[in-house]
Fold these 3 entries.
Entry 1:
Amino acid sequence: MGCFAHARRRFFEALKALPNAQRKQNLAAHEAVRRIDALYLIERQNKDLSDEERTRIRTEEAVPQLESLREWAAKMRHETMSSVKLGEALGYLITQWPKLVRYVENPRLAIDTNLAENAIRPFVMALGRRNWLFADTVKGAKGSAALYSIVSTARANGLEPYAYLRRLFAELPKARTVEDFEAIVPFNTT
């Protein structure tokens, strides 16, 4: 899952890198932000719809805009030096593309990861950063972060973390198909 908020932020950084006199001109970075904002507008207008309606609207409205954005970004990348901030922003958008567009495949996914990041931020601030400083290995720190993420996701879905982890650790070794894995993710667990 990718995050359009991160992609959008890179275009703002490209604008900030310009001299003040050039920032207000109609630049490619402004165009990228405008196009991404149009995708966010679709999401805001349809946040309260059913999964079926949201899927239909994303297919009819967001998918064509996404295709247009990808084509535009590919063209602009050929015209822009990769070492400048705009080139970096375009490069990020293009390399992250498969992850960025994944949200249109599932109506329960958001266009960005802001909700997840905001959910784990208090946990990270209170516990994680201080404790990860003393992790023996990078692999251990990443393992701890993954476990904390699972616990936070379980809580966000109204599950008791210990009970969910017990079920996850019991069912995960048996999972073989995509359906098996989907059946044990927190939002599919009751």
Entry 2:
Amino acid sequence: MNLILFADSELNVNKYSAKTECAEVSVFLPRRDVRAVHLLKVLHKSVGSCFDAGVLGGKTGSGVIAKITAEGLLVTLNLDADPPPRTPLHLGVGFPRPIQLRRLLRDCASLGLAAVDLITTELGEKSYRDTKLLDDGGARSALIEGAVQARDTRLPELAVYSSLSIWLQKDFSQRRQGTKSLSKKALGTVLLAADNVRPQGSFSELEPFQKDVTVVLAVGAERGWSDREREQLESAGFTRLSIGKRALRTETACIAAAVLVMERMGLLA
């Protein structure tokens, strides 16, 4: 854990809220809590030791172990810094295998994506949408794991859609046509879709975007897009771009395309 993350409900609400300015608060961690185990067994912290801390959805800062007992740890938090800025990238992806979904959500949170939408696509395996990760807290745990890795406190918004056509009805902020000419710098919101089968261009042809651009990125499931879905994407203003000639796992395609977009947004400097 690069950041010991606490829920707002664990803190003294009279002194601190994720929506207010920071204040110094104390939190008790039971011995069996995974965060207590990490502090003591992995980081080898002791009384007086400092560590990076944050509150879910709120500030980051530092923590100090004030007391260690047989029951657990008493830690004091001083949260006075803002978390990293969000990446203005909204991902819509066809349901991957559950084992891939966990990794994908973790990595999307690490990259700071604004939102992840899971979509039932025509060529995707329908059984994947029945994953228990969305009901048993596994998806949220994966998002938190990714945020902790990146020293972030905020999570991508997560939503599920029963078809691409329904997802395309979503009111993306400042929706506009995808870049018809890849040689032009994009403004506003840009709609892009990964498609290695029938692309209209390549991610490598995108020039750097101007400031304050928001990108909506669509990635199909393992078997990609159907012809009807390609027509739906094009009608909605998405430009279909290739990531290369190799057949990629859904999670790999998502991260590869996201990183290529982030590079064009100037976020990797």
Entry 3:
Amino acid sequence: MPDADSVYAYDAMRLLMAAIAEAGPDRQRVMAALRRHRSSTIECLAGTMRLDGHLNNITEPKLVRVVKGRLIVP
């Protein structure tokens, strides 16, 4: 069963694959494509991801409950 780490890993891989698709198989160009996302927000599977200047996810985690199969966000 997927957990929170799986969701974040999926979102990170989507971001990396988009950078590779944009830049091609060149490390410097891939990093340049990733750096264009610094200090931005990206819509992901986990919600809205905010990245700082070092490409770290700085989004505040949210606690949700599952009641009868539905997510309840306080």
